[in-house]
Amino acid sequence: MNLSMFSLEGKVALITGGSRGIGRSSALALADAGAHVVVSSRKIADLELVAAEIKAKGVKGMAIAAHNAKMEESKALVDRVMKEFGRIDILMNNAGTNPYYGPLMDQDEKTWDVTMNVNLKGLFFLSQLAARVMKAQGGGCIINTASTGGLRAGDLGVYCVTKAAVIMLTQVMAKEWGQHNIRVNAIAPGIIKTRLSEALWKEPAVNAKAIARIPLIRLGEPDECAGVVVFLASDAGSYITGETIVIDGGLLHGEPAHLQKK
Known about the structure:
Low-confidence stretches: none
Number of helices: 7
Strand content: 5-15%
Order of helices and strands: EHEHEHEHEHEHHE
């Protein structure tokens, strides 16, 4: 196999939620593969640190503060990227939130709206803006960050609902936009050691309980998601669209064999 198929040299990537965790790791991995990378989130300070790491790899890096749930900011974000780079080859919708932990019976309208707006509405309209650019330039690639919570009901309620919707939206966009040479895929991480999942790994007892459910007997690292992102963005994944790749150490397959009763 020709490993040059994984090269992203000269491509321009835009990543939301790019200041930490899976977004940061993916940004650095795309830069390693040769892409120029723009990272975005609400706060500029952390983004600038990531942009500096990107530039240190010999490619162009840029940090742009934008709230993906605010349509005018998403439009300004795309306009700025186009002004600076003239194209968008890769969009990674990684921004996400989960402001409420608790039973559905107690969910309020405000946290419902925040979760829906960031995880779903913002993702769709930014994808729409990027897809218009990609259509005009002859193609591109969109990668959405979903979750295993979108494939099986869990304890995160509305967050899981939004991620299930992201998976279906990925399929619908792939079906409609394939005619424009735009591929749309998703990754569905399990428990990855990021700030969003701190409650599941920071406390030793909780961490041990979480690990015990995973066949690989460990939590995932952000870099283990980043490799899949590079694959999906590159020519190595050029005939894949509408798919959701699970990255969960085997968690969705049920209780690990070493815990099953003999």
